[in-house]
Amino acid sequence: MTASPAGGDAGSIAALEQLYGPRSESIDRANAEVLRRLDESVPVLVDVAAARDVVPQLADRTLLHCGPQVEWDAVCDPLRRSLRAAAVAEGWAADVEQADRLLADGDVRLEPATDHATVVPMATAMGPSTPVFVVENRQGGTRAFAPVNQGPGETAWFGRETPAAIARLEFLRDVAGQLLREMVVAAGPIDVLALAAQGVQMGDDVHMRTQGTTSLLIRNLLPHLAALPSPGRIELAGFMSGNHLFFLNLAMAAARSLTLAAEQVAGSSIVTTMCRNGTTFGIRLAGTNTLFLSDAPPVEDAMYYPDFGPDVAAPDIGDSAVLELIGLGGAAAAGSPAVAGFLGGRISDAVAVTEEMAMICAGNSSRFQLPTWDYRGTPLGVDARHVVDLGIAPKITTGILHASSGIGQIGAGVATAPLACFRAAVLDLAADA
Amino acid sequence: MTASPAGGDAGSIAALEQLYGPRSESIDRANAEVLRRLDESVPVLVDVAAARDVVPQLADRTLLHCGPQVEWDAVCDPLRRSLRAAAVAEGWAADVEQADRLLADGDVRLEPATDHATVVPMATAMGPSTPVFVVENRQGGTRAFAPVNQGPGETAWFGRETPAAIARLEFLRDVAGQLLREMVVAAGPIDVLALAAQGVQMGDDVHMRTQGTTSLLIRNLLPHLAALPSPGRIELAGFMSGNHLFFLNLAMAAARSLTLAAEQVAGSSIVTTMCRNGTTFGIRLAGTNTLFLSDAPPVEDAMYYPDFGPDVAAPDIGDSAVLELIGLGGAAAAGSPAVAGFLGGRISDAVAVTEEMAMICAGNSSRFQLPTWDYRGTPLGVDARHVVDLGIAPKITTGILHASSGIGQIGAGVATAPLACFRAAVLDLAADA
């Protein structure tokens, strides 16, 4: 522990004395099993299907959203817009005004995607017709889902609700979903994290930047894309070619399939859920059902598009922080010149983020090796004890949305998770003796 | 100069005293112009066409080959096989035995590709029907050419002459060439070295490894590939998907378009041609017509496929060392974990190669920046004076072929250019007062 453990908080210190003391042996054993589950399984992409056909317990007239559960009144502006766009795309409302009334009246149900083995980035909202990646973790006995990434520009996952944003949702449903399914079935199971491991050696943190992994995936799928029927083939090719974050959602589904398996281990201090809805930030430890909440934090180490700044930035949002839990994103910062660009510009600045993550992690990935970190594996398994003890919270590489104007993405940066929810989780674990 | 300049060779010392002394001002001025030409122009891919239609002064029944001019009797085994395969693919011979007789009898003319503004990697031989990339350097007023890369495995550029290797040449001519032309024309001019600059930040040295650049190029071309006619489209997609060195030849053509422009500057000590045929290694300085020759060196820092080793390795071969002259390959080693793998395995080992190249280069690329080298530009402009003075020759990242069995590639590694040809070039420049 540091000279001033847990920031001097008496309750936290007492909890840590338990968790590092008499309880340490059982917790370390549970953590070792969690680490094994996060590190050794091989999630594979096996299908693309409509959410209603594969996502468990997804009722009609329900929209899944990022982050913890949230009432309509508390939903942040970008997510409201995304929910309205999704309701229109589902055909439940003729326009966003009508969609707003349906949502305000509770005629469309809101549920957290994370409760449905599903992860969605930024302000994504998705209805039952949304095409999702189906990723199987056969060793762990889990399946997880993520919608196909909506791409750059005027899109609902960035909090836009324009006709173009709604048309993109319809294109994904009506054109891309079926063609992607044909490609994926023809290609056979795709080892998602083998691609991510290559990407980590190509400057991707596989969160903020998936340029390398997206390009590798496209090259792998190329013969199957060429064999698709026309004219959807050409439209899909244009969409994939222009979407450098195409791989993001796929990596998230793979990550979730690992954390779902890890979540079945009782009595661990390792974080297996970390998600944000732009209002609250939630974490869960393996083996518990409770999501501990804090206010969603701002994105601090940020670069903004011209004419925008922190005064108009929405708080940190999205389920994509699941990537930081399996050794990607902030954990893989050291390998990414793109992330370094947000942190002072030097690779050593990005290495510092990885090294900080290492201080609060229980192990290292054997899958994701960082050439710029002497080929060590990325830090793996965020231990809430270490977070509270050291006062160091995980760093999350992420985009930034406008807080109110509906203009969409205005920048990107590195967010720091709020400490309060980790403290609450540690107190709960200590109380649960 | 070092304590023992030029290895103590009296002739070299006298030449360097001229070239660093009274002649330095005019040489430095010429070198600055050479550097500008290597650094500032923007080569663009504009077309893919049969060599006979675009390569200057290419007569019928002529095969272009890698490296300096060479008589049939002195041609190394892998290049012999490649020449025979090309003669069969051109329809001049029914089989490789007949091709051998034609070549031995001088009924097929051999000319260095480098004399035709063309660069070819490894043991490539190419006839007039070969599809070539056409790269324009509009600022420099030059055009350069390179054949479409033949891909991995059983292929003639690795010194194979099997039916499969010949069939690959026929596929490139009969299927790939026309379809690539359609894609390139539809895409419009492609800035080749902008892709290379991105690749350098994705672990490519853009010589031994073009995984990132190949994938980026494919993603850029994707909408145009999707629009190609069937069934060639599917076959081409399979070929491109499986060829991680697809970008190599394109980068070489772009590099040659720069060195051709630089070669028009008189009185410079900067190397503008560096090529090998597996028998001899040749260099030329800007503004001279003489190619100074040494014996082709072995590839020393090498990793071999199982069951192979240096005893059966052909010497260093191919025109691809043109890449080292524009800041790629060995000059860009610091950014490439793949190259580091051949040099001890740590990024610092690869950085050492880049730093050694910096000692013999006249400047730095403003185009290719290395995150692992504090974002400095790769060393640019190999100055033959520095090479002779310091006794440090350029490092070249390259593949290794079997010397005699026709089995093809057996490994890869880093070759060191022979010093003797640099000494001869420096003596010639000093004499040319």
Q: Give the SSE order of chain A as H and E letters.
A: HHEHEHHEEEEHEHHHHEEEEEHHEEHEEH
Query: Largest chain-chain contact?
Result: A-B, 34 and 34 residues
| Strand coverage percent of chain A | 15-25%
What characterizes the major β-sheet of chain A? 4 strands, antiparallel
Overall CATH class of the largest domain in chain A: Alpha Beta
What's the structural domain tally of chain A? Answer: 2
CATH superfamily of the largest domain in chain A: Enterococcus faecalis V583 domain
Low-confidence stretches of chain A: none
CATH names the topology of the largest domain in chain A as Enterococcus faecalis V583 fold
- Choose one word for the global shape of chain A: globular
Number of strands of chain A: 16
Percent in helix of chain A: 25-40%
**Largest sheet, spatial ordering of strands of chain A:** 6-5-1-7
User: How far from one another are the termini of chain A?
Assistant: 22 Å
Indicate the mean pLDDT of chain A: 96
Q: Do you know the CATH architecture of the largest domain in chain A?
A: Alpha-Beta Complex
Look at the helices and sheets of chain A and give the structural class.
Answer: alpha+beta
What can you tell me about this protein's structure?
The structure is a homodimer of 433-residue chains. By secondary structure, chain A is of the alpha+beta class. Chain A contains 14 helices and 16 strands. In chain A, the strands form 5 sheets. Chain A has a 4-stranded antiparallel beta sheet with strand order 6-5-1-7. In chain A, helix 1 (10-20) crosses helix 14 (419-431). The first copy, chain A, starts with 9 loop residues before the first helix and ends with a helix. The A-B interface holds A 198, 201-203, 211-212, 214-216, 218-220, 222-223, 225-228, 233-234, 236-238, 240-241, 337, 340, 345-347, 371-372, 374-375 and B 198, 201-203, 211-212, 214-216, 218-220, 222-223, 225-228, 233-234, 236-238, 240-241, 337, 340, 345-347, 371-372, 374-375.
